[in-house]
Amino acid sequence: MRLRITPRDTSFFDLLAELASHLVVGSQLLGEILGASKADRKAIGKKISEAENAADDVTHTIMRQLNSTFVTPLDRDDIAGLASALDDCMDHMEEAADLIVLYKLEEIPRKVSDQVSVLQRCSELTAEAMPHLRQMNDLSEYWVEINRLENQADKAHRKLLAQMFDEVQDPIQLMKIKEVVETLETAADAFEKVANMVETIALKES
Amino acid sequence: MRLRITPRDTSFFDLLAELASHLVVGSQLLGEILGASKADRKAIGKKISEAENAADDVTHTIMRQLNSTFVTPLDRDDIAGLASALDDCMDHMEEAADLIVLYKLEEIPRKVSDQVSVLQRCSELTAEAMPHLRQMNDLSEYWVEINRLENQADKAHRKLLAQMFDEVQDPIQLMKIKEVVETLETAADAFEKVANMVETIALKES
Amino acid sequence: MRLRITPRDTSFFDLLAELASHLVVGSQLLGEILGASKADRKAIGKKISEAENAADDVTHTIMRQLNSTFVTPLDRDDIAGLASALDDCMDHMEEAADLIVLYKLEEIPRKVSDQVSVLQRCSELTAEAMPHLRQMNDLSEYWVEINRLENQADKAHRKLLAQMFDEVQDPIQLMKIKEVVETLETAADAFEKVANMVETIALKES
């Protein structure tokens, strides 16, 4: 029998990367729900909830492991903060999906899918960035690009709202769509928060 | 005459517990305002404002005392952060009460009282948890339970909104109720932030 | 040729003061846009965007300089946090201006200009406070006054909303104005966050 003296494979970096991978799945499903018929939305919404539960589980594993690990590769509260910020991204995407199901929206403005494309790109960039935390290298492109995407999304979202105010006649319908659009924008903000957190950590560790 | 060499009774832990006790009062009054006639709401709203002022006073006492104390039992900014997060819970509950008074709501959907019950439970749990900060013991049950309550409240609040969209015909009435419901949800979020902060502090101090 | 051995003139304190000076410009332009005809709003909105870009540039300079400076006069993440919080004030003011342009609002309730006056006062107080960070003196009046202004603004904003709900008949018009009013309130909150951050820093450094 061999002693295991190397650390466990699932390090904090691996766990953060795993957490981010659930965001990629969630954002893909969010794209699917937009294109789906009202009848199919519920089933896709359920899959997003499963992705959210999976993300929750990883977050709790990270927190528990932080609690029982003596030496951590980054500051304890940076790891905890990052895990919780990644989890927030998932929560807002899941909320948007849930609202689409619950509000039984007839028509979703086509530009909403541009918002979801941004979230998909943010998820991918974030998942690619996590492994680089280990060496703190090549991260500046990531946060610059996320900030650029979020700025772009922010302008697009305001124009979309203004356009909806002109086009949608039924105020109640308008309120529903507005809330979906704003929840998607909050999800994009959440990705920006992760990127800013990574920037701050890199600053501190450099 | 005896010299007083022991520290003052009102330690930071006592002050945080006192602050949390105002949240218990506030959440009870919030329950009362829901059941009250429109004529009685104003008087109850005034009592909630008083509870909010009392919470403000304790928060300022904590900040002043932090400023004049050399050795603190927890990190200075953790105590400041916790006081300010507790104060936020109160502010959101007071805001919800104020909106109920100002908007002269005719009918408040019955499920809103479920939201307030959650806030009452959160207040009690938070007030019970504060004294345990001293020894950092038995706190994990508290934050797990608050997180569970908040998740539950979050799902319930979305379903409530969807139901209101189906039932309330007048869009302006709908906007008013929606804002009250969302402010109550923000208050529940604020309790979760306190719990997460306690978890982070416990993590760091352990 | 003389060697330059003194540090560069643009210290972090100067940069933070410069950042705050853009807030003063932004809040002045926000006042102008309220009084302007619909035709003139776009041009003023563009000037606010320019002020926002200028603020962004200073923020990035601060972040870059933090990255390349070995000894900083305050904690690295306090400077980063403060820069980012000041930048948030600008972003919310710019967002409010952008919404006023995009929503082509016919009439803006007169009390909205009270909200903007508060933002102008907050900007001035913040710009005056920044140079005092160097010696950490005379700052308590600043944060007490900002907190007082924000509390006042918060009450005023709720009353304004309640009044609008009574007066504005068209729900879509109401939704537009409500969003402008709430964005201005978020800007006031952002100034309070800066003040609270300054208070926490002063507490820590004292």
From TrEMBL, chains A, B, C:
Domain of life: Bacteria
InterPro entries from the UniProt entry: PhoU-like_sf, Put_Phosphate_transp_reg, UPF0111_domain
Entry's family note: Belongs to the UPF0111 family.
Name of protein: Phosphate transport regulator
Species of origin: Jonesia denitrificans (strain ATCC 14870 / DSM 20603 / BCRC 15368 / CIP 55.134 / JCM 11481 / NBRC 15587 / NCTC 10816 / Prevot 55134)
